[in-house]
Amino acid sequence: MRRLFGRVSCASIRRRPRAGIASVLVGLTLAAEAHAFVPQVDWDPDEVPQLPAFDDGGRANALRAEAYRALRQNDWRRAMSIGREWVRLDPEDDFPWVLQAWAHAENNDYPNVVAAYNRAIDINPQQRYPVWRSLGVAYTVLHRYDYAVTAYARATEIDPSEPRAWNDLCEAQLRNDNPAAALGSAQQALLREADYAEAWSCRGQALMREKRLDEALSAFRRAIDGKTLDPRTDRANFWASLGWVYHQLNRADGVQEAVEGIHRWNADAAARFREQFMAGREDVRR
Q1: What pLDDT, on the 0 to 100 scale, is given for residue 168?
Q2: In what helix (H) or strand (E) does residue 37 lie, and over which residues does it extend?
Q3: Which of 79, 159, 234, 240 has the fewest beta carbons under 10 Å from its own?
C-alpha cells in the first residue's frame, strides 16, 4: 500500500475566553482562557484534490471528499467514523489521524487529541503549522505546559513570520514558569506586529513575574491601545492586569482608572474586580 505525505489540511484555533476576570493573585488573563479547535475547510468537497488510487479502486478519494463534507456540516460523529474507516484502509496515512484529532477536540477528548496528532506526526514529521499549534493547545488544556512549549516552538520554526505563533509560545512559557523565555517570545511577536495587543499583554505578564512593575504598566497600556489579532479577545482583561499592577504599587488612583476601563468593556467584570480588590486589601490588613 502506498504511503502519501503532506496531505494535512489547514486548521485554525478558536479561543473562547471565560467570562471571569483575572484572579486576585496576579491577574493572569492567560490562565483564565479555555481553548477549542475549529477546523476550517478551505475547499469545496467536490474540488478536493484527488489522491493516487489505492488497490480498492480509489476508496481513499471518496473518504477524503466525505470527510470534508462532514466537516463543513459540523457533523463530527460522521467525521470520526470516516477517520476510523480511513485508518483501517491505510494506517500509514497521516491525514485521517489529523481528522480524528479534530473530532476528538470537538468532543473535548483532549488525551485522544494528543494521541491522534502525535500519531500523525510519527507517520509524517513534516506536519504543517496548524497541526503543531493545535497540539500545543491540547497540551495546554491538559496542563502539560512543558509539552505545549515544545509544540509551539515547533510552530514558530515552521512559520517564524507568524506573530501569533510567537505569542502562543510566550503564553506557554509563562504557564511553564519561565518568564525570561516568555519575554523573548513576546519580543519576537512584537517585531512582526508592533501593535499586537495580546503580545503586549503577554510581555506585561512576564514583566509582572519579574517584578518589573513600571515596565509592566507600560506594556499593559500598549495592550490597551493596541490591535487584537483575535476578535474574541476580551479587552477588559488588559485593564484588569493594569489594575493589579497599580494595586501592587499601592496606587489607588491607578486602580480606579482600571476599574473604569474594565467597566467600559464589561460592567459585571468591573464589579467582580472591585470585590477581588477589596478582598485582597482585607487579606493584607490581616
Answers
A1: 96
A2: strand 33-38
A3: 159
